[in-house]
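Q: What structure does this chain adopt?
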Amino acid sequence: DNKKKTDQPSKSSFWGLLIWFLIVWFIISSLFSYFEERTRVTIPYSVFKEEIRKGNIESVTITGNRINGNFRTEYKSPVEPFPAESSSAEPSPQSEQPPAQTYEMFTTVKPDVDDPELLQLFDQHGVVVNVEPEEQPWFLNILIYLLPWILIIGFFIYTGKKAGEQMKNMGGGGPGVFGVGQSRAKRYHRSITNITFKDVAGLENAKQDLTEIIEYLKNPRRFARLGATVPKGILLLGPPGCGKTLLARATAGEANIPFFSISGSEFVEMFVGVGASRVRDMFLNAKREAPSIIFIDEIDSIGRTRGSGYGGGHDEREQTLNQILSEMDGFEPHQSVVVMAATNRPDVLDPALTRPGRFDRHITIELPKKQARSRILEIHMRDVPLAMDVDVERLAARTVGFSGADLKNLVNEAALLAGRKNKQQVDSSDFEEARDKVLLGAEREELLNDDEKSLVAFHEAGHALLAKLIPGADPLQKVTIIPRGSALGATEQIPEIDRHNYSRSYLLDLIAVRLGGRASEQLIFGDVSNGAAADLKQVTQIAKKMICQWGMSERVGPISYQGEEHMFLGQEVVEQKDFSEYTARIIDEEIYRLVSESEQRASDLIKENRQKLEVIAEALIKNETLSNDDIDRLLDGLNSNHSS
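A:
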């Protein structure tokens, strides 16, 4: 505060002196112009030519149409008599006219017409003629040349000041136009963030590793006496939405030490060298406040393999990466600074970044399992009034493959749906509808005609029937023909357990169930539609992985034929295959054979159980949605009729 008080008068005095200087300079310039004009008389052009003929003009300076010059002898201006007060009044004999004023210089304006006589007069009377280009007034020249620079400098000062204020509020960077290369990292204190490890469900191993790092930074002697050194870098790996950034926020809440957070994209801008400068400034600030933690989110935006893609080894992104590598290697033992980073693309990171000595510890964060999903749902439901029929365990079992972000969105969608219906509590039907909305999209407004409705009903009935007939298929949960998103209908199956390994028999059962809808259409209508497009895409991808990656083909054998993945596009590059055209042909034939055999299996089961298919389809046309219990009752009733 004392520094601000002392700085304020100095700034005010500076601007005050500047204003007084400009005022004094303007007054002096005005007085100089005034006295100069007092010694110069403005005469008509005709009087000017008459004075030349008299030989009273010594020299002239022509600037455009304006002519300035000097008289040989002093020029007396004509005296105008006093105006009469009235026409009958006579001038008083005592009244005297003012004395005539004499001038040594003059100015006149040449008319915009050719006057060849003027040059002859100059020659005849020995007038010295000077010609100068027409110039604008001095103050206008100053305004034209200086105003743009004043505006540009003022703009940079203003924007730099605003940016500096924002960076101060965020805890990083500095003010002024020269702060462009300073760090944009946000500094967090324990009092700023209220998220701790208690708010992170599951991820016990990851939390244990991070707790160990925090304890080392707080009490390094405990580990140093055993010869241990703190890891320089911790890399959080995992799919989007699995909780990497949340875990970093919880670390900031748990650690009672300075925590700097920044996104990888904030390092690189259009100015060359800005990223490297920001890296240096960020690490310098962290070292000053050691022990501290730096968190870089989405590090793959600057940490991609060098020398790949466009730009070679000299673009701004690679310079930023080189600076990060240099800073991490430059740590000294007494500087306890740990770098945390998160990415969902570890395959594209530069090997120099992930080697031991830089990011020593890699923490893999997977999608939550059933127990973790249940705890995540409980955390997000803390502020949601729940009805008695909400079963968190059942909801967790029905959200296989959901990430933490998906579960949070599910709870929020259920609360929004309940609010739309003006409910006081969120019940199980709201969560059911929210789950369908998250997975399939919102219900579509348009209605299907009778033909389309019948086609979709038999298609979904084919999926549902095979899910009931094939022993190894995932249990059936629900089937509906209500259009949602881009789908006209859906058949929902929920695995009983979270699967980590997939056997060949399980995958073949999965393919057969996916082809059940197409087989049903072909049996009932004698034709197929584009409704099976998503099924065919999924079936082809599964078959391709079975053949090329998982060695589930006797003809191809236990060999991996996975194409190289493009690190920027995130997809396979067709041109860069590591196998011959002959092998590619065998792979295509095996994929076709596997899918064709599964389709034939599905068709045979559908034909053998056509009556069951028709019963399920008719119930779908009537009710639009059937649960697993509804389908069991339909099939049990059909079996009892046959037995009787």
